[in-house]
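Replying to the earlier thread about multi-chain prediction with a worked example.

Input:
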Amino acid sequence: MSESVVLSLTKATKLYAGVPAIDGVDFDLRRGEIHALVGENGAGKSTLTKVMAGVVALTSGTMTVDGVEASPQSPLEARHLGVAMVFQENSLVPTMTVAQNLFLGQERFYNRLRGVYIAAQQFLQSLNFDVAPTATVGALGAAKKQMVEIARAVLHNAKVIIFDEPTASLTPEEKKYFFDLVRDLKRRGVSIVFISHALEEALALADRITVLRDGKRVVTDDAAKFDRARIVQAMVGRDLSHTLYGVRKATARKAGDRVLTVQNLKMAPMVKNNSLSVFAGQITGVFGLVGAGRTETFKIVSGALKRDFFYGGEIFLRNKPVRFRVPAPAVRAGVAYVTEDRKVEGFFETASIARNIYLGLMSRFPGGRAVLSRREANTIGSDWVKALNVRAIGDEARVVELSGGNQQKVVIAKSLVQEPDLIIFDEPTRGVDVGAIVEIHELINRLADEGKAVVVISSYLPEIMALSDRILVSRQGKVVEEFSALEATEEKIMYAAIH
Amino acid sequence: MTRPARDFINRFLGRGEAAIAVPTFDGALKPNQKLAEAETVLECAAPEDLATDGRSLYLADGPRLHRLDGAAATEIRSFDRPISALAVLPERRLAVALAGREVRIYSQPSAPKPYAVFATGLRAVNTLAPGLEGTLIATDGSAVYGVEDWARDLLERQRGGRLLALDLASGAVTTLAAGLGFAFGARTAGDEILVSESWMHRLIAVRRDGTMRIALPHLPVYPSRLSHASGGGYWLTAFVARSLLVEFVLREPAYRKRMMAEIDPEYWIVPRLRSGLSFKEPLQGAHIKTMGVIKPWAPPRSYGLVIRLDGAGAPLYSLHSRVDGTNHGVVAAVECDGDLVMIAKGPGRVLRLPIDGLDKEFGA
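Result:
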């Protein structure tokens, strides 16, 4: 068996300022196997894979590649060893084209651009990726950027490819392509390590699964010997299987007053004559594939984007016409938008939790405030940290130091402190661990029970099914179908989203 | 900014009043086929209104007044002009509006002569209902056109509708509200009167002192008559759904003027109570059909709809006959013996739907 091991770690420990991110972890990866790495945020998955990819060095312990001890000090060294990593936060150069990004670092003295594009086109086609090699990466959506990242790793002939949350931004159809690609890589003898919070993916795709908790390895076993409940229990140390997506809604909340009416909203080319309503005391789920115009519609509602200038449609908030050109008046009118891209739009990562939450409150004041109170900020911050159970080392912890789930709670607190009537959650649990998902879902349900109008935009069908009282399906820029929670099935929703 | 300046800018930019936008059928108004599946009780030439005293159900069919017993209609009497509105008052007194211009009160449905007549200043009375403090309330849809000319009233964007209180004892007529966009349906709601304003796509509540509040705005339909529901709340009928095409035409005065002058009214771009699917109709081809089959979601030329409202006037659920159905132009709905009896004026039908189970089915 040891001959088939391509990469192994023995008693791997990595300390950050004396605090172990991984602690004495033993891990081995066999040739041509798909190995899923699962665990809550902060369990040490990313650190473990970063060690393999040469992004960080071990504090103690050893790593071997093909039986030879190795200690890559940079991603380039790891790549020379045959280990490549596709990062969760993509590492592409946004101002360069897809082809240039693919061949970045392999440039010759004289590069014939046409040749690069042709080679990139042929390579992308061989992977069945629908991405134009001449497109600028900055103009691509998240899913296509992910494809380019994957293609780059494959191009480098890596024998070990590590994927960190590869499917988080992919549509169901794209996920199928991705799974086929991973299986194809496996057939070619490439070993795959992938981190995923979607446990069904781990169960469906992986040969073996390793569960990490608090920096330690809990269990490694064949995927066939796991089920969802066993993984979740190993991850969090308690049984959450019945509280997370498992139970379908048996009742739906009744609609209260109509809080939001969108009529024939237009923002070319993403939003096309979109019309919908949102009611108080209900969770309105909005499902659609990437590019369906969901995020753009609700960003227009919350003033983060502008609708078309001529004949752009109408938005009514509590039956009064509104048009928010910037977010501040929307916040004052009681609209809160919790972004899908928390790292870019959600918080100031080097500011403390309390500061971030206080900034959310400040946006309610039209001209700002002459005097800012540190005491008030700290009080509000600590109140919300307690209320949302944000786990941080001290009140002064910076948001960048938090795990994904806790960062998301800070973003939510920043919106809730504004006391909104209409709260729009855009992908509220993307990149969030299972424990935090349960807490965020409970919070969303509580808001609806309190009579708030809640919108949940999600690309993850089980999340939509578990949360929503009514489900709107968006396709090609407008809502095309509505289901009540009781009549909806995954097949019906997906059919409406595609056809 | 002055109103003309704002109107000009709105018209240029497509905002506010000039926005060509229609609310969507969602939430409680989510489409279904309940009305299309309703039992047809009777087919008649020109059904217009229904009224009940709790025991008997009366139907106005052109100039004839019928009593409905199950599927059998017995003619009680006929008038010299078509009946445009009907109400049964306490003590089985009957109120009828004839051609929208005259309201007569009879002590019995079969009484030979009326004991009160109101005929002054009425033009398009389309609803009669028991009012506050022993009065009879009436909606007069238009100050310019008769009941049969409602399409012209819409295209000219008239706002001459009125809510009237007719005092049966003194014969006095009091205007409770004026300047309404085709008042078409009214019912008492506590100390207020709920009124449908068809051209404004809303329900308003008129207080005793004549002040108004908007009870239900932004409807995607042209609302018509109201009736009380047995479990509290109301049934609101809507004779057709709004469409972007009609909204567009309503913002083009020159086009409308020319259309009214040159085109047969049968083919005007206006809401229709029925669609003949003639090749001369404005919406044709792929707008309406795909692979030769009428699309339920096509832009509505005609549509049937009844909305169940709660006591505060908020929609609970709705019953539809979509574009591919035929039970269109619904103008009246009343409860009788556990059934909801409705008039689909488009095909000339009286429909019946058991109420039992509807609340449960729609989670109301």
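The longest strand of chain B covers residues 173-180.

Feel free to reuse this layout for your own posts.
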